[in-house]
Structures are given as structure tokens and as C-alpha cells.
Amino acid sequence: MTPDDPLSGPSGTPADESDSATGPTGTVASLVTAPESGAPPVRRDAVEIHPDGVEDDRYRRGDGHFQLDGCSVTLVAAEALAAVREETGIDATDGRHRRNVVVDGFGAGMDPLIDATVAVGEALLRPTRRRPPCAHVEELAGEDGLASGLRDRGGLCCDVIEPGRVAVGDPVRIREADPRTAGAAIAERLAGREGADDRAPGEDGL
Q1: pLDDT value at position 31?
Q2: How many CB atoms lie within 10 A of CB 85?
Q3: Do residues 95 and 30 lie in contact, with contact meaning Cβ atoms separated by under 8 Å?
Q4: Residue 78: predicted pLDDT
Q5: How far is CA 52 from the centre of its chain?
Q6: Number of H helices and number of E strands within the chain?
Q7: 65 in Cβ contact with 37 (< 8 Å)
Q8: Can you tell me whether residue 147 is helix, strand or coil?
């Protein structure tokens, strides 16, 4: 396919997959791996996400600092990094946040993504919990205040539902909302339908 083929995204993701998306959409702003615990972060143009983690990343190799509490894939919001830079002057966009995928478009806390099924490039992920920053991240970054700056917006831990390639610029879409949001949406639709059914024939509802 040619680069401007309407059926192909940056990682070959079919454009019509957006038909199955729900809620806000975003973009992969950058990708980061570290080959071993404590190693400097490496910015990547593309990565392969496997069932057990990101290729060439320390956690997939079993060498992450928090191995007992490791995540297959980690996300952080571009909006969070921008806020940290504005508030503290610390620029962590070089990867010193030590999260794998920087996502733009879902807010600093990425609340809509928690417990949802999320298409990231060709991969399907499920963010299961928040990944708060720690003193170790701050120590490796060499920036006092980075951990406190990322508090409540330090990223999300994800399980891998389907592996696949992810590239910078790829779309990020909520394929299925988390059960609570989905249930509330269904209840709202049902309430609206029942309200319409309660109207008398010819009644316009005004």
C-alpha cells in the first residue's frame, strides 16, 4: 500500500477500525525502552509488543527494578509531561519518565483508558491500574522533583490482549469502554427509550 492509502495507518492499521472505537481518540507521541534495569532510556520510532511485554525492554527480559510488580506495557500522557515541564521546569520528554508509550489525547491522568480495551497501533492493551512514580525514577533521571511532579499522573500499567507493532504517530482508540462506563451508557440509552415510549401518540414532548 502507498503511504496515502486510506485503508492504512502508520502501522498498517485499517482506517475503518475507527468505526468500532468509542469515546475520545489519541495518538502515540513517542516510544521508550530501556534494555536493562538502570540503563538510559532509548527513544524508538517503532516497537513490537509481545504477550509478555515490549521487545528490547528490561521488563520483558526479566530485569526490571520492580520485577515483582512489573507491567507488561506502561503508558504515560503527553499532557502529564507537559504539565510537569510547565510546573517544575523538568523536561522528561527524552524518556526519563521510563514509561514505554507516551499517549496524547486522553488528558494527564488518562482516566478514560483505565479498564478499557485500547487499540494502540496494531496492539490491543488493557490498562489495569495506575503506575505512580517513585524515588528510583527520580534518581535515574537525576531530577529532584520529577516524582512529585508526576504524582497522580505517572502513567498506567497495561496487560497485553493482542500483540502487535506500534509506531510513533499511530492512533490510540478505545475499542471497548470499561464495564462501568459501558453500563452507564446502556442505562442512559434505555432510560431515553423508555421516556419516548411513555409519550402518548402524537405527543411531541414539549
Answers
A1: 98
A2: 14
A3: yes
A4: 97
A5: 17
A6: 4, 11
A7: yes
A8: helix
Question: If you write DSSP's letter for every residue of 48-114 in order, what string do you get?
Answer: EEETTEETT-TTTTT--TTGGG--SEEEEEHHHHHHHHHHH----TTTTT--SEEEESS-TT-GGGT
pLDDT tens digits, 111-136: 999 999 999 999 999 999 998 776 55
* Closest by CA position to 24, among listed 106, 102, 104: 106
Q: Which three cell numbers stand for residue 193?
A: 427509550
The predicted pLDDT at position 169 comes to 98
Give the burial string for 140-150 (b: 16+ CB within 10 Å, else e).
Answer: bbebeebbebb
**The pTM of the whole model exceeds 0.70:** yes
The rounded distance, in Å, linking the Cα atoms of 54 and 61 is 9
Grouping H, G, I as helix, E, B as strand and the rest as coil, residue 40 is: coil
